[in-house]
Amino acid sequence: MSRIGRREEDSRLLLIEAYRELVEMGADPTVAEAIYVGVQSEVYEHQIMYGTLAAEALGLLPREAYRVEACAAAGALALRSAYMAVKSGEVKAALAVGVEKMTARGTEAVTDALMAASHHIDQRSGVTIPAHYAMVARRYMHQYGATEEDLCMVAVKNHRHAVRNPKAHFQRAITLEECLASRPIAAPIKLYDAAPISDGAAIALVASEEVARKAPTPAVEVVASAVATDTLSASQRPDLTYPRAVAEAASKAYGRAGLTPKAVEVAEVHDAFTINEVLMYEALGFAERGGGYRLAREGATSLEGSIPVNPSGGLKARGHPIGATGLAQIYELYLQLTGRAYGRNTGARVGIAVNEGGVNSAAVVHILRAP
Amino acid sequence: MTLRYIAEGRLVGGRCTRCGGAFFPYSPICIHCGGEARPEEVPRSGVVLSYSVVHVSNGRFKTPYTVAIAKFGDFQLPGYVKEGPVDIGDEVVWEVGELEGDRWYYFRRLR
The complex's ipTM? Predict the structure, then answer.
């Protein structure tokens, strides 16, 4: 994975940075017969054809390569595509790639590009993506008694985790007071409730058991991969606060893995906004509906807690280069499950990742196991 | 389809002939179950389920402004709130008129 942040480099150089690390780790990415690239938008670099761009940038022409997209779920969908290609026997190995160069454009252009993930009625009514999550947050607070302070606790935790992540966008702690006093983006969502606009790239090599066994570097096992969908507009859901697609994908993943939520020892979840980390606790079965906000408050999801969530710093502090995020999560789980996460090792043997796009409108869940 | 209805000053949702579910805007296939859906007029007044005051926009909307999700009969709609703010539980009506240079619908709070 590249370093995440405001980067001078374009997508091509970010991809090369991530690729070089993969090679330094001892993997041989040239065994890949196909390349799936998750990218959110063509707006930032006025570029489509990111499959070909990646194959060319990495010296992997003329391999099969194309883009997959579901807004911020694009990265995990690239992994899903690589997983299915290998699982089917069509290829022995494939690269799952994610990249985004968001800072090539300003905040208004980014806001507009992200709004394309919602229904056109939302777009024409001025319902930005942060406003969507803000309405989910407001409703959640109304139904369950959570406060803005409870939501800021998630940001404080994730910033504290990112202090130990040298590749994070923000390697600094924040206080609860700073979060509460930060300027509103879409009230009640404030600047410190929201993931930043970041650049970055991440790459995973997915291989058959046979190929992985011969590799000089340890591999983790993908024990489950699942995807589900929900309405583009959150307005069309019977309960605004319930991320049905995430719950559905998680349920399918647990079923395929033959595991229960109790078996999970570390999680990387999609905290694009603090409210969403709370919703993920509930959808993944770490807490009951309406009880998720208490987990962060009690410290259960911090590095030292019973179920560490977002040891990387999450989208909030590691950063959120949209198309790369799903694979940044997988990168963190790889480090955690192989004991390479240095100052933030959890010793976990089973990890789960939730990546979603839109307003939990496309959900991708992967469960990984240590070698 | 939605634009044509709005040009006529109407908001039209979908009602499923199979599951009875309601959704907005109208589309011939039910978004809940895949059954056949029929167009149905959205009632004029509704109740706010949630809202947000937006401070960072895409440049098309002057900030700050309020948006809400409100329930009109069985139909839940997102919308811009003229002369916000509103609160959860407030009664609103929808109207069709000019919104940031477009003919579109918006909500207004009942006083």
Answer: 0.98
In a structure prediction context, what are the per-residue pLDDT tens digits for chain B, which is 111 residues long?
889 999 999 999 999 999 999 999 999 999 999 999 999 999 999 999 999 999 999 999 999 999 999 999 999 999 999 987 899 999 999 999 999 999 999 999 987
Domain boundaries, chain A: 11-369
Q: What are phi and psi of A352, to 5 degrees?
A: -125, 145
B78: which chain A residues are within 8 Å (Cβ-Cβ)?
A: 119, 121-122, 125, 127, 233-235
How wide is the angle at C-alpha A251 spanned by C-alphas A86 and A79, nearest 5°? 25
- Inter-chain touch A138–B51, beta carbons under 8 Å: yes
Question: Under an 8 Å CB criterion, which residues of B touch A?
Answer: 2, 23-25, 31, 49-61, 65, 67-69, 76-80, 88, 99-100, 102, 104-106
Radius of gyration of chain A (CA): 19
Report the phi/psi class of residue A91: left, alpha or beta, with left for phi > 0 and alpha for psi in -120 to 50. Answer: beta
What distance in Å separates residue B20's CA from the closest CA in chain A?
14
The CATH class given to the A11-369 domain equals alpha beta
The helix or strand, by DSSP H or E, that contains position A36, with its residue range, turns out to be strand A34-38
Distance CA A102, CA A291 (A): 34
CA distance to A118, A153, A201, A240, A253, per residue, from B71 (Å)? 19, 31, 41, 12, 34
DSSP-assigned states of every residue in A143-162: HH---HHHHHHHHHHHHHHH
Count other Cβ atoms within 10 Å, centred on residue A210.
9
